[in-house]
Amino acid sequence: MPSTLVIQSHRKPLPFNWMTACLRSVKDWADDNAYDYRFIDDSLFDCLDADLRQKLGAQKVIASDLARLIHLQRSLEEGYDCVLWCDADFLVFDPQNFIVPESEYALGREVWVQGGGSGKLRAYRKVHNAFLMFRRGNSFLDFYVDSAQRLLQLNQGGIPAQFIGPKLLTAIHNIVVCPVLETAGMLSPLVMRDLLAGQGKALSLFLEKSSHPLAAANLSASLCFAEGFSESEMVRLIEALQAGNLPG
User: Which among 94, 182, 219, 230 is least surrounded, fewest beta carbons within 10 Å?
Assistant: First the structure.
């Protein structure tokens, strides 16, 4: 059995055609490195108990944030030495420099650029769960699963979309300084607009606050749709990233 497994998931059919290129990029990267690859459809959620699924209702993002952890946990129990998660809108555009770290586990890096007061841009440096890596015997995954489950059980009000994902991970990271794969990034809509234009203040701020050049990035499909990105714009963005047109 190959010692490393890459997992991705999304409902079928995909909501946007451009996501096919993202999935293919991860599958090709996995194949090139002789990693096992597993794609899961909505059966991803079968691992959640009925009470929790009913509580979360239509909040699929939160359900996915927990379900991915359980699948990663179970895959380590299957016998894999290393397991990775990549979101379905995660693009590997520089595969030679997208290297699994030697650490026990790793989270993705988020440098989120958005508008602030008085028209100024602000960059928020966080971590994300669009990329996750855990090795057998790591000290973090079981703790993370237990913490996420307890928080969901205790919550009696509205649950923010990133409650047990980036919000929880960033809170933990700010205290204990988790290992982060700096090349596994995330692009906000403002940064993507500047990438399409070839330059811009949001892109400049993003590069200033990023400690390493990216080799892969989450393209935030739901926000792209909300911000009005067209299919052709997303295809152009993907082609530009794959051609190495992200300034370093």
Answer: 230
